[in-house]
Structure to design on (361 residues):
C-alpha cells in the first residue's frame, strides 16, 4: 500500500457512460490507495457531473470536464499521467491516438478497433512515435488478467498434446441487459458478436498459448431484436495444428460460457458460474487417470488489469535510455489480434463458410 506521504499517480477517465458508472468507478474506488482520479470527461456537462459525483467519496477533488475545452485541459495537464478511454467503439481509437500523441498513457476499452484495417493503421501511427518516450497503449479486455485463465493456462501445459478445443458461449443479451439498447453496438460491424466476442477469443488465446491461423464459419440471424449476425459457429485451427470449435449465441434462454481443451494426457475446462454468491469461473482439471480436481476463482480481472496499468505508468521513465517493457497481456496489439480472429470468423460466415486466414499482427 502506498504511504500517506507518497503522491499517487493521477489519471483521468474519458467517458461517462454505463460502463464507467457501473464498473470503472467501483473498481477505481477499490484501488483508490494506488491512484488518484483527477478528472472525468464527457461530451456533455450533465453526464460528466453525474459520473464525477459517483466518485466523489474516494476522489473528493475530482474535476468535471466536458466538451472540447475540457478535453484540452486534460491534455495540457502535466500532472495527469494516464487516461482511461471508455467511449463508443467507433471513436475510441481516434481518442486514444489523440491522447498518446499528447504524451498520455492510455488504457482503452475493448474492442481494440472496429476492423483489422483500423487497428493496423492505428498501430502504424503509434509505432511511429519516439520508441523510448512512447506512452503505453493498453487495451482493457481483462480476461487475460482473470486468475482462472492465469491458472488454467498453466494446467494446459500438463495435459500433453492438445487434441481438440471447445468454446461455447450462450449469452444473455436481452432487453433486461443494460447494453441491449446501446446504439453504437448496434451500428458496429459485427454488432454484439464482435463487441462481446473479443472477450471470449482473448480467453481462448490466453488458455491455449497459441495463435489461431484459420477459421471457417456459419453465421445466422435468428433474433430480429438483435443486429445481425447473432449466432456464429466456427471451426478454427491453431498454428500448432490443433482444431477447435467456437460456438456463440448472443442471446440464449439457457446461458452458458465455457472453454475446454482436451489433451493426450488429460483435459482442462473453464466454466463461468457462481459459488457462495460470488461470480467467477470454475476450473476442472482432468488428470491422465481421469481424476477431476475443481477450483473456483471469483472475477477480479478488471481490478488486476487496472493495477497493472497504474504500476506501469508509475514506473515509466520517458527520460530513460531503453524502451519501457509494460505488461504484455494488455498491450494494444493483443486486442488487435482478438479483433482479427472475430473479423475472420464474420468474413467466413458472410462468404458461405469459406476458409479464411487470420490476419497476423
Amino acid at each position: 500500500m502506498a504511504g500517506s506521504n507518497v503522491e499517487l499517480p493521477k489519471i483521468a477517465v474519458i467517458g461517462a457512460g454505463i460502463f464507467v458508472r457501473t464498473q470503472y468507478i467501483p473498481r477505481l474506488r477499490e484501488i483508490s490507495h494506488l491512484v488518484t482520479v483527477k478528472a472525468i470527461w464527457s461530451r456533455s456537462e450533465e453526464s460528466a457531473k453525474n459520473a464525477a459525483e459517483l466518485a466523489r467519496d474516494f476522489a473528493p477533488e475530482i474535476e468535471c470536464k466536458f466538451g472540447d475545452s475540457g478535453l484540452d485541459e486534460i491534455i495540457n495537464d502535466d500532472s495527469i499521467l494516464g487516461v482511461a478511454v471508455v467511449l463508443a467503439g467507433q471513436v475510441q481509437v481516434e481518442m486514444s491516438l489523440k491522447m498518446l500523441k499528447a504524451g498520455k498513457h492510455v488504457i482503452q476499452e475493448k474492442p481494440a478497433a472496429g476492423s483489422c484495417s483500423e487497428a493496423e493503421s492505428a498501430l502504424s501511427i503509434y509505432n511511429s512515435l519516439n520508441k523510448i518516450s512512447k506512452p503505453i497503449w493498453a487495451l482493457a479486455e481483462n480476461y487475460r488478467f482473470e486468475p482462472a485463465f492465469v491458472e488454467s493456462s498453466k494446467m494446459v501445459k500438463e495435459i500433453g498434446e492438445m487434441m481438440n478445443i471447445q468454446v461455447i458461449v450462450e449469452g444473455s443479451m436481452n432487453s433486461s441487459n443494460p447494453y441491449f439498447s446501446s446504439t453504437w453496438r448496434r451500428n458496429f460491424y459485427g454488432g454484439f458478436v464482435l463487441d462481446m466476442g473479443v472477450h471470449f477469443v482473448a480467453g481462448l488465446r490466453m488458455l491455449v498459448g497459441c495463435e489461431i491461423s484459420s477459421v471457417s464459419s456459419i453465421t445466422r440471424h435468428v433474433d430480429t431484436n438483435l443486429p445481425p449476425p447473432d449466432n456464429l459457429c466456427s471451426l478454427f485451427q491453431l498454428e500448432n495444428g490443433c482444431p477447435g470449435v467456437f460456438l456463440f449465441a448472443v442471446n440464449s434462454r439457457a446461458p452458458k460460457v465455457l472453454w475446454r481443451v482436451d489433451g493426450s494426457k488429460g483435459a482442462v475446462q473453464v466454466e463461468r458460474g457462481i459459488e457462495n454468491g460470488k461470480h467467477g469461473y470454475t476450473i476442472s482439471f482432468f488428470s491422465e487417470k481421469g481424476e477431476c480436481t475443481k477450483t473456483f476463482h471469483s472475477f477480479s480481472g478488471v481490478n488486476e488489469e487496472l493495477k497493472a496499468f497504474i504500476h506501469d505508468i508509475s514506473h515509466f521513465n520517458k527520460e530513460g535510455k531503453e524502451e519501457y517493457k509494460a505488461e504484455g497481456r494488455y498491450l494494444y496489439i493483443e486486442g488487435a489480434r482478438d479483433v482479427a480472429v472475430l473479423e475472420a470468423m464474420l468474413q467466413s460466415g458472410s462468404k458461405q463458410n469459406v476458409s479464411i486466414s487470420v490476419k497476423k499482427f
Notes: The two ends are 37 Å apart (CA to CA). The first helix runs from residue 18 to 30.
